[in-house]
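User: Teach me something about this protein's shape.
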Amino acid sequence: MNTTYKLALPLTLAFILSACGGSGSSTTPAPTATVNPPTTKTPTTPTTPEAVHHIDPSDVAEYVENFKLQYDALDLQIDGVSYDLSFLEEKRKDNHIYATYEKGFVIIGFNFKEGEPISELLVLETELDNVDEAFADTNAYLVGNDITIEFDDDNAIYSGTLSHLTKGSFPIRMVLNESLTQAGSTQVNVDGTTATITGEAGTLTYVQISDVISNRPEVDTLLLQHVPGSVNDDINMHTGRLIRNAQLTTKVAENSVISSGGVDLFAAGFNRIYTDGAFVGVHSWATSDGVEASKLDKNDALHGAQLTYFREMLGESLGPEFYFFTLNAAPFESIHQMTLAELEKYLLIM
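Assistant: First, the predicted structure itself:
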């Protein structure tokens, strides 16, 4: 079972992908630019226009507690030995979800169109870090046989055997739920007054930042080291609100790389520090049906939650302007590295 909050993924994957990410670079040796705080705390509940949330603020606490319960239930047992599972990626065209465990990779069948698991499992037991390289090693294969799936509340429980060419067969039992894809993969390390975050943001990130705010009052700066995006934008916006309400400074270092949802978190800083050389990248998001947000009418209701968020973080006028800039800067499958002029224009740096 997952005994530490690591990462997770949902079995109902009909969520909207969103992104505002970026990367920026400059020239001279690591100068910094700081956004001075406003004289009063920026409100997080705009009244005009009406705020839109995919997860209502009053429901966030319950949402996070349910995530923790689901996350703790994730489990992979091979031959009676239990392992933690972590989300790696989706292969929607192949109907596969990729996860990692202590000894390699797990490839799980999943019908994305129907939103249902498939009785298909493959385990790659390998020391290789690259899953594509692991596929080339047939000796790594533990092939699932007679896999059955039962459902218990939010959990899908897989049972069956794994067969290896020379090692024989082993029983397998795996418990999955939607937390697998929703958690993200962030790690947060505290050193003095700075908490450094690395990994893809998700619900786990909300839990980690909340823990830092509650239990490490000396921390006043969040260094975004490598945050390529978010697997759960609905909760990521509330993570940004945590950062703003705690008046944390967000910072990118010379070698930082942040994109998409990572930029959303950077924008949440009460102060924002940009170090020359950092990569800040933005792009459009796409609906679960593959429609680019840049193709939607500006008045489409699907923009509502992101517009609410960026009004809170960057202001009533500049927030929407920045949001629509990100949609047109690059398509969903690409990334636009923000220039210094763009960073300054949208007050990500001053």
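Now, about its shape. The first strand starts at residue 32 and ends at 34. Residues 285 and 291 are 8 Å apart (CA to CA). If you'd like, I can walk through any region in more detail.
User: That's plenty for now, thanks!
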